[in-house]
Fold:
Amino acid sequence: MTNVHGSEHLPVGRVLPVVVLDDARHADPLGDALVKGGLTAVEVTLRTAAGLDAIAALAARDDLTVGAGTVLTVEQAERAIGAGARFVVTPGFAPAVVRACQRAGVPVVPGAATATEIQMALDAGLNVVKFFPAQQLGGAAMIKALAAPFRDVRFIPTGGITAAVIADYLALPAVLAVGASWMASADLIAGEQWDEIANRTREALAAAGGAV
Ligand SMILES: O=C(O)C(=O)C[C@H](O)[C@H](O)COP(=O)(O)O
Structure:
């Protein structure tokens, strides 16, 4: 397969925290907590107005790779990349957003929930998709079934994943990384519970078998 965006270019590690910040001033202490817990990458969603500023703050660090999540429009993709996002994640497959990221040379991971959407990603030259919402769609068993015909595709399952099931996903060769919010939930961030976030991050990595 040619012109496929290789998963080796995606700097997300094996466990990717998906975070929602209401206040960009929380970005740095959150970054400290995630690094303390052992992580190297974070996906900041654009669900809140503070998202872009949080991306800019985290992009200035040299100990974390920051990407943008919940990117729905070309404008959001361009702004996130301008703020320093090193990768872009979308909940579904949006061809114009994919093209904007490709033009900018920034890896993009579109959401895919069906075989058709995976084929759309392949047609766009991508071989990594976000499997969303993972638990609700059938979990690791569903990825195993989808991976059979799509031998070159790597999945980042996200949605409803906790310590109880993270290892089931990471055991599959088709799973590149797992996205989750429980270790750095919006409530913990808003409540400035940095020690708790670091602890849960350590727990997540332990449940993932120590993989970062
Ligand atoms: O907003 C988006 O584009 C998303 O990526 C949604 C996230 O996948 C979930 O917020 C993470 O799933 P939970 O671990 O169940 O919270």
